Amino acid sequence: MPTPNIKLPNMDHYWVPFTANRQFKAMPRLFKAAKGNYFTTMDDRQILDGTAGLWCVPAGHGREEIAAAVGNQLRTLDYAPAFQTSHPLAFEAAERVAQYMPAGLDRIFFTNSGSESVETALKIALAYHRVCGNPLRNKLIGRERGYHGVNFGGIAVGGIAGNRKAFGNALAGVDHIRHPLDIVNNAFTKGVPEDGGIALANEFEQRIMTLHDPATIASLIVEPMQGSAGVIVPPKNYLKRLREICTKHGILLIFDEVITGFGRLGTRFGADYFDVIPDIITCAKGLTNGVVPMGAVAVKREIYDAFMENSAANAIELPHGYTYSAIPIACAAAIATLDIFANEKLEDRGASLSGRLESAAHSLKGLPMVKDIRNIGLVAGIEFEAIAGKPGAMSFATYLKCYEMGVHVRYTGDIIAVSPPLTIEPHEIDRIFSTIADAIKFVVAAGDAGLDHTRYLKNEQDWAMHQSHQAHINHPILEHLE
């Protein structure tokens, strides 16, 4: 019987993003509160957050400093038009973000998400070459298995087939370099793989530039660490070599740091971790600790100056923007979040915990079905052997079992990803991976039955069935009599 005091919302109307809706609504995982490193479920269970929300809550949940800043701003100035007018906090937030960026990337354009940040960066790259008198530089290069959001530019330069095939041809003039994952040679590497980086990066010059005149390429966009594709860590010197090639051929290098920014690798950005400075950085997620939607694009000053110096007098230099660019409450949240990072030195905390996470993650080596384990900073990926005809079944079952056991992880394809808040405690890191280990053993021991998602979360299934039954009683189907 369903728990009497659990009342679910009417789930008919909400189309849940990036989710198998029919499956989810039959066993809904709903959180009603969060504090620190824990979510609270509908039945008051505490779920350890092993994913920092969706990579976006590095400072932990329920930060009073951010809530106060947002509340005060909402009562003072709720909105100011983003075009042709602005407000002081937008400029203060831009200055603070610029100070947080790697040296030289100090011109900031605000967006509302990582997807919008990528779209903005690609448009800036194309417009930059045009304003500099090089309109033929109009090709965009992405990377296989890359994730750059869900807008048309992002899915075009992105390299995850499932995110593209339903939406037609996307953008023309796009190509992709090979991804750096090499399980054959680098399986179970701790941290950054040592070998193969330069040779792999050289393929950009050898293969892509054989197909496309480099004088026609506007930009190359890559994630320093590919997160959504399953924690793909680039080999040593790979990104440095890409930087050299882009510089040599006048191609703008864009780092998509929506996931790797704000302490995830134990540094402010992946650019700092790998000591490679791109021309443009996109970010979002941790910028406001996930509290208010906000993204940002940071560009080198010379890119901004090219627009200012080469555009017609009194013209709009970049005809692009959003109604909610630099909305006051987002700026307040960003400033408060950056204050927390500065006061608590969260990047250093993440770096100090990275060894603990690495050891805990690699303790899973040798478990059945575990094909590879990858880690960098405060993030890890556990990849399972593929099961013919059942893609993702092992990771989904493991995810559900972890949820039952009180730990939230992320599954993507055949991979479990872990990226806890930077406020995580050492014993909580141990708990995350011991729970994953127990879940793997449970799923494998049950055989094919362990892959059946309906054997998990029986309470949640009962709640959904009870709600459906009540809806049928309260709103019976009317039969029309002739």
UniProtKB/TrEMBL annotation:
Molecular function GO labels: adenosylmethionine-8-amino-7-oxononanoate transaminase activity; pyridoxal phosphate binding
One Gene Ontology biological process: biotin biosynthetic process
CDD domains: OAT_like
Domain of life (superkingdom): Bacteria
Keywords: Aminotransferase, Pyridoxal phosphate, Transferase
Keyword Transferase annotated: yes
Pfam family, one: Aminotran_3
Cofactor(s) needed: pyridoxal 5'-phosphate
Database matches in InterPro entries: Aminotrans_3, Aminotrans_3_PPA_site, PyrdxlP-dep_Trfase, PyrdxlP-dep_Trfase_major, PyrdxlP-dep_Trfase_small
Protein family per UniProt: Belongs to the class-III pyridoxal-phosphate-dependent aminotransferase family.
Record's protein name: Aspartate aminotransferase family protein
